[in-house]
Amino acid sequence: MRVINVGLLGFGTIGTGVVRNIQRNATIMQQRLGHRLALVKIADLDITTDRGVQLECGVLTTAVDDVINHPDIDIVIELIGGYEPAKSFILQAIANGKHIVTANKALMAVHGQEIIEAANRQGVSVMFEAAVGGGIPVISAIKENLCSNEFNSILGILNGTCNFILTKMTEKGSDFAPVLQEAQKLGYAEADPTFDIEGADTAHKIALLSALCFGTTVDFDQVYTEGISNITAIDIQFATQMGYKIKLLAIGKNHGEQIEVRVHPTMIPGTYQLAEVNGVFNAVRLTGDFVGPTLLYGSGAGMDATASAVMGDVMAISRDQVSGARARLPIMGYCADQIKALPIKPMSEIVSHYYLRFTTIDQPGVLAKIAGCLGKYDISIQSMIQPEWHEADSVPIVLMTQAAKELDISNALEEIWQLDIISQPTCLIRVEHDLD
């Protein structure tokens, strides 16, 4: 029976999950593949901590070269994370003719093009299903099952930490800080949660998904990114009152000659499926010209869910190895010479509906002044809430606008801020009504 040899870089949480998956489901993998997978070497700086799995003598090593230069290893799994030394290890493994499976979203979003070009030169595969959505098979859906479609949009809830926090804020009426502390106690948020709550993790993922869907390269530095740390209980309360929920939404849209790629808190109607994705779960909504809207939902992180995605890639590559195919699927879903450069639409040019919460002094004529500034920039008011309660001399005024250009909103808010009736900075949250 043919044996495909696998090496692993990184023996942390996900690496342990990979070993567990291989050991527990070795028989079913062999039944589905028609050949056997063998985990030959695992490299990690720490090879003494008990991970709760049993390994044969000689499998563990602290020397990365024992994996990436091993003459018999066919597939290298990279689970180190970060940019370096992960990138150098992957490039060396590729140079040695080894196929790559990685869960490293940051590396692929920022340095993916360099890695892909190296892999194409060597005729090897690079697969990264686990980099986006944990156990949700969104990348394989884009590259294979739905590949006859031209994609119009991608909308995603792609970070379980942020989704847990916003869900709990909505359920409890709590502000951000105490819910973040709860998430940290439960292990859903890191001790330093910045990467998650400020949107960088989600931005890496939507950059990859947009490139895959739209057949282009995405400069990560151009992805507009805004996190959830400024979302307050009062805004969630008003959103609920108006029939919306607030989610950290990853948005990719195809406009033909340019694309939108952005991440920010977004209000979506409470009746929409994405609005019902709660807790640590993730979801991706793809809209293709033939298939229409398709929602993929599941565990977006965690040891077992992510290990499942990693091993799915390993099994796909091993099938190709046995059949004699090399790099059967283009790494980014499009043939390399068909990937085109599409500019990302500047945020100033995007069109959206907007939720605006003004904090004003309590005097007559306030609303008229605000409406006058908005009207000057052709911004129409769709609905309004002016609560009876207020604090001290401050009164909240909540408006929902009709569709408007971001630049016009920005200019209007700058002018409104100069008015002597405004006592605090205005809260702005973008609204997605038409998800198609």
Write structural notes for this entry.
The structure is a single chain. With 436 residues, the chain is of the alpha/beta class. Helices cover 36% and strands 25% of the residues. It folds into three domains: 3-134 and 303-335, Rossmann fold; 138-299, Dihydrodipicolinate Reductase, domain 2 (2-Layer Sandwich); 348-431, Alpha-Beta Plaits, CATH 3.30.70.260. The strands form two sheets. Strands 7, 8, 9, 10, 11, 12, 13, 14, 15, 16 and 17 form an eleven-stranded mixed β-sheet that branches. The chain has a six-stranded parallel β-sheet with strand order 3-2-1-4-5-6, sandwiched between helices. Strand 9 (244-254) and strand 10 (259-269) form a beta hairpin. Helix 5 (105-122) packs parallel to helix 10 and helix 7 (160-172) packs across helix 8 (176-185). The model has no long low-confidence stretch (mean pLDDT 93).
